[in-house]
Amino acid sequence: xxxxxxxxxxxxxxxxxxxxxxxxxxxxxxxxxxxxxxxxxxxxxxxxxxxxxxxxxxxxxxxxxxxxxxxxxxxxxxxxxxxxxxxxxxxxxxxxxxxxxxxxxxxxxxxxxxxxxxxxxxxxxxxxxxxxxxxxxxxxxxxxxxxxxxxxxxxxxxxxxxxxxxxxxxxxxxxxxxxxxxxxxxxxxxxxxxxxxxxxxxxxxxxxxxxxxxxxxxxxxxxxxxxxxxxxxxxxxxxxxxxxxxxxxxxxxxxxxxxxxxxxxxxxxxxxxxxxxxxxxxxxxxxxxxxxxxxxxxxxxxxxxxxxxxxxxxxxxxxxxxxxxxxxxxxxxxxxxxxxxxxxxxxxxxxxxx
Length: 354
Known about the structure:
The chain has 354 residues and is of the alpha+beta class. The chain has two domains: 25-79 and 225-348, Beta-lactamase (3-Layer(aba) Sandwich); 83-194, no CATH class. 32% of the residues lie in helices and 13% in strands. It has helices at residues 3-19, 40-53, 83-97, 127-131, 167-181, 185-194, 227-238, 251-257, 264-270, 336-348; strands at residues 58-63, 66-72, 78-79, 224-225, 242-243, 246-247, 280-283, 288-291, 302-306, 310-315, 320-325. The chain has a seven-stranded antiparallel sheet, with helices on both faces. Strands 3-4 form a two-stranded antiparallel sheet. A hairpin with a 2-residue loop joins strand 5 (242-243) and strand 6. Helix 2 packs antiparallel against helix 10 and helix 3 runs parallel beside helix 5 (167-181). It is globular. Residues 1-19 form the signal peptide. Keywords: Hydrolase, Signal. It comes from Gilvirhabdus luticola. Residues 59-339 form the Beta-lactamase-related domain. It is an enzyme of class 3 (hydrolase).
């Protein structure tokens, strides 16, 4: 082999590794994002859009591990709404892999019941059905936020056969996680994510479960993060569970989370909430999957999405993570269309096909 070619191929893996950075105690900002394909004029237009047309309180774009755009207060901790579910999916991986959690266990085997009781057919649902929103259990939610207004009649659906976004599934999945691992969700977030990812703003004392136990005994597990710490979660996902050479989440589990369990066709048929947004989502294990897209930047993208306007979105095709927040305490919210437009417009600032 030609000596020059030898050194080229020998150095290539190192070059690729260096191209992807990871924040240490603080994030690094890209000094010249325009040199890496980011338009200054489009960035300015996007900032004006955020000001004029949204109620977003914090926004960040990360490319190759460096911040190329930020807006608002990205350090304040606030409620991330249903993004919590995607975080829980990440936590599941370690315990599925070591055998403590068997995704094929049924609610009957797990001795799961509830205030109004579960029907025999509902008790056949598995953990896998819960985390893919296909349980067929339509018991009332003790912590609202699902789409049970679109639910079929209780007991009419075979577990695994029908997709419906229901907080009963997700809250019960949280309970089962703690039951099977004998660990508190928030403690695991701290040890498995916050500490190794060196989150700058994580505060364990902010994390508290909530719910009306007269309706359902399964509490929700609200989470509070800063926008820049949410971006660390997204960067971990983008890198298939690896953080600067250390495996935090097994890459096979990352793939499992973002493998389609429900197509956008079925999802749109069962719940019409994305009508007129021009976005089609499939669903994996508590992650939303971008489908039916023509924009190369959106290829294989996936999101954690939360009420009012919270998101962690990963764009593998362009090595980008976007995180944004809308602080609940301010009483601010964004329409579903606005929340999704944000995620399309953000990457339109980038216009390099490489």
